[in-house]
UniProtKB/TrEMBL annotation:
Keywords attached to this entry: Membrane, Signal, Transmembrane, Transmembrane helix
Stretches for region Disordered: 42-61
Record's protein name: TPM domain-containing protein
Keyword Acyltransferase on entry: no
Keyword Transmembrane helix among record annotations: yes
Transmembrane segments: 197-217
Segment forming the signal sequence: 1-43
Residue spans of biased composition, Low complexity class: 42-53
Length: 451
């Protein structure tokens, strides 16, 4: 069960008596309060497993420091309160999360998942087991600076403890640009004064408003659940196509690790290693697919497939005796085409030209004046090119292209429906400013991100 610091509730004094109307209002308020308590108890973070990004984000909107109970040895309750107060007094949007090592938290996406769930621009530091990372919205500081803060935190302290996290928070707050104030701050309280007549009118208005709100929220919730379920079904169908396509490509390799057939033992060892990486990516993608509960979850699947397709491309090059491919972004038109070979000018319908990474086959089609082989996905209006899909496909694209920088993602998608839907999401930076929030520092972590 994940815990977080809870603000003391302010006691609200109500006038006694008041007749049937006051009694009814009191009854309704009590019912709403009990309902809220029941809902909160049913959704307690970590009650049936690891806290979700949504639960962590909800906690961070209350206090800037979140600690999973299983990680209390890294930051105790008293230290958590002290760090929260220190961050709040600094007035900058800095958030610190302490989590245990858990398969539920994907190393490449955990920071961006938390940022997305919190819904607030900020500098996010995450201690995941023994590894510490940081990422930031580029409106506050460059992604490289966030990565450097993470590495500096580990270098200064070795084991990241309360003092190290406090140092990170102080340096992060000092690094936020002038005028980039935090989003914290309490809402103003209503004046409780006034005559008895005003109180009666307010009671009537409250009763009517509550009744209307119940009807509105109930209908809206049902509609929203249906829309979310339909969106998830469409995205899952698309990702299932991706996983199936990758598995079929593995089958077509006709590669036997026991007899790779290389020219030397070293080359054979390299072939087996690439094949192993490709198989591992397939298993990782399938496991991540089984965990998909929201469109956001598919980022783990497509991120694994992106790495796997590069391993396949490298394996093919080794077997053919060709130069090894550069680890470039996937083909923009269809990530299933594998790593891109070059950049080409392209413009969406009604949009401005921009360079996009393309595979050799699509480059040849463009040279011949033919349209590229674009990836079409399911939308509410039928199958469309993925860049014309809605926001549900943002994590899908983020998994494929997230490791290649904000400039790549935002530049490719600007002026498209997906780019507009992702909005500020493409400015979310971590390792070098990449969409998806790679920002873990320390030696052996792929230059700041987890590979």
């Amino acid at each position: 069960m994940a815990l977080h610091a809870v603000r003391p509730r302010t006691r609200t004094h109500r006038p006694r008596g008041g007749g049937p109307l006051a009694a009814l209002v009191t009854f309704l308020l009590a019912a709403v309060t009990l309902l809220a308590m029941a809902t909160s108890a049913g959704a307690a973070p970590g009650a049936s497993g690891p806290a979700t990004p949504e639960e962590i984000g909800k906690a961070l909107r209350e206090r800037p420091v979140y600690v999973d109970e299983r990680a209390r040895d890294r930051l105790g309750a008293a230290d958590q309160r002290a760090l929260s107060e220190r961050i709040e007094s600094a007035g900058e949007p800095v958030y610190v999360v302490v989590l245990p090592k858990d398969a539920a938290y994907h190393q490449r996406t955990v920071i961006s998942d938390i940022r997305e769930a919190t819904g607030r621009a900020g500098v996010y530091g995450v201690l995941l087991g023994e590894q510490f990372g940081a990422a930031s919205d580029t409106s506050l500081m460059p992604g490289d600076r966030a990565r450097d803060l993470a590495r500096e935190t580990e270098r200064r302290s070795g084991a990241v403890d309360a003092a190290a996290l406090t140092g990170f928070a102080d340096r992060a707050a000092a690094s936020v640009g002038e005028g980039a104030g935090g989003t914290s701050g309490g809402a103003g309280r209503a004046d409780t004064g006034g005559s008895g007549a005003v109180g009666t009118v307010l009671g009537v208005l409250l009763l009517g408003g509550m009744a209307a709100a119940v009807l509105f929220v109930g209908r809206g919730a049902v509609r929203a659940r249906k829309e979310e379920a339909a969106e998830l079904a469409r995205v899952k169908a698309t990702v299932d196509e991706d996983v199936t396509s990758y598995g079929e490509e593995l089958d077509r390799l006709d590669f036997a690790p026991s007899a790779p057939g290389g020219a030397s033992p070293e080359e054979n060892e390299a072939l087996v290693a690439e094949y192993g990486a490709a198989l591992d990516a397939y298993e990782e993608a399938k496991a991540a697919m089984a965990r998909v509960r929201t469109p956001r979850d598919v980022r783990e699947v497509t991120s694994a497939l992106e790495g796997g397709r590069f391993a396949l491309a490298t394996l093919r090059a080794r077997r053919a005796g060709e130069p090894l491919p550069e680890h470039r972004a996937p083909c923009f038109f269809d990530p299933r085409h594998g790593p891109s070979a070059e950049d080409r000018e392209w413009s969406p319908e009604g949009g401005a030209p921009r360079p996009v990474p393309v595979c050799a086959a699509d480059a040849a089609r463009l040279d011949d004046g033919e349209p590229p082989m674009a990836r079409h996905v399911e939308t509410a209006g039928g199958r469309r090119p993925y860049w014309e899909a809605g926001p549900a496909y943002g994590p899908w694209a983020g998994g494929f292209f997230g490791g290649y920088g904000t400039t790549v993602v935002s530049g490719m998608l600007i002026g498209t429906m997906l780019g507009s839907a992702m909005g500020a999401g493409t400015a979310w930076a971590g390792d070098g400013g990449g969409y998806g929030g790679d920002g873990f520092g320390g030696d052996g972590f792929g230059g700041g991100g987890f590979d």
